[in-house]
Design brief:
This protein is an alpha/beta fold. The protein has helices at 3-19, 79-91, 108-111, 119-124, 131-149, 163-174, 191-204, 222-232, 252-264; strands at 35-41, 46-53, 65-71, 99-103, 152-161, 181-185, 213-217, 240-243. It is globular.
């Protein structure tokens, strides 16, 4: 009779071990969100990587799409985050879906800043000031490549944050027709003693009607807020300035990307108001 409890315990233990066996699985399937292309750039004099994510319904023949050009668009930069926001926006009807083209940055201080004669900046960042070359790379090589290899509809938006936001604003001022809509988030307007702000009145003088621009700034307070306000005061009334008091420089980009994409590619039909999908960016009066 003493052996019966032992037998029961052994049976229970055997059953427990069997229950802990991991379930059988199929072979792993990669989750694919895009593809990388390496361009042999004559403008940059080297090979450059772009990352491309296509909308889920891209396989439908004959359908065309707008293009989002994402600065700092490397896989280890902002490509994954912004692509995810793009697909989520489209799924909820917050924005139209778009082809996402991430341009991988190599030397941000070189590619995203304009020429400087400041000896201290040049001593610290000797490669700084090559934004015009990078802009030619985009206009002469990246955009034509995308338009010839993918089904685009002629609409394009560009988005960037920090130094990339500064580049967005400089491009909007110097070559506004390169893209059809622009978003600059927390741009580094302090760079080179606010040089872009000092140049803006001349660049804006006598210009054509410019494409839509959203300038989204963070709550850094003090002089940094004043720097953003000085640039915003120069913008034409059609431009949007959206100061965000709830975020700092390190938190604003990911928080405001969904609204930025809605600004760049507004849906054909407005989402229900109860969704709360508002673009906190109204034309300046």
């Amino acid at each position: 009779m003493r052996r019966l409890p032992i037998a029961i315990l052994l049976a229970v233990a055997s059953t427990a071990c069997a229950a802990q066996e991991p379930p059988a699985t199929s072979a792993a399937t990669p989750i694919v969100i895009g593809e990388s292309r390496v361009l042999d750039s004559a403008v940059m004099g080297t090979k450059r990587t772009i990352n491309v994510s296509l909308p889920p319904d891209y396989a439908e023949e004959g359908k065309t799409y707008p293009v989002l050009y994402l600065l700092d668009g490397g896989v280890d930069q902002d490509f994954l985050t912004v692509t995810g926001a793009m697909r989520l926006d489209a799924m909820w009807g917050r924005s139209r879906d778009a082809i996402v083209v991430g341009i991988q940055s190599v030397d941000r201080r070189a590619e995203l800043t304009g020429p400087t004669s400041d000896p201290d900046l040049l001593a610290t960042y000797p490669t700084a000031g090559q934004s015009e070359q990078f802009r030619r790379f985009l206009g002469d090589e990246v955009v034509p490549f995308v338009e010839s290899h993918y089904r685009t509809n002629g609409e394009s938006g560009v988005i960037g944050e920090s130094l990339a936001g500064l580049f967005v604003l400089e491009t909007w001022l110097r070559q506004p027709r390169l893209f059809t809509r622009y978003v600059a988030i927390s741009p580094s307007l302090w760079w080179d003693h606010e040089k872009l702000t000092r140049l803006a009145p001349q660049l804006l003088r006598g210009s054509d009607i410019r494409p839509p621009l959203a300038l989204v700034t963070e709550n850094e307070g003090g002089e940094m807020a004043a720097v953003a306000d000085r640039f915003a005061a120069l913008l034409p009334g059609s431009a949007c300035h959206a100061p965000q008091t709830a975020y700092g420089h390190a938190t604003i980009y990911h928080a405001m990307t969904p609204a930025a994409l809605q600004f760049l590619f507004p849906p054909e039909q407005a989402p229900p108001p109860e969704y709360g999908f508002e673009v906190p960016c109204s034309p300046r009066s």
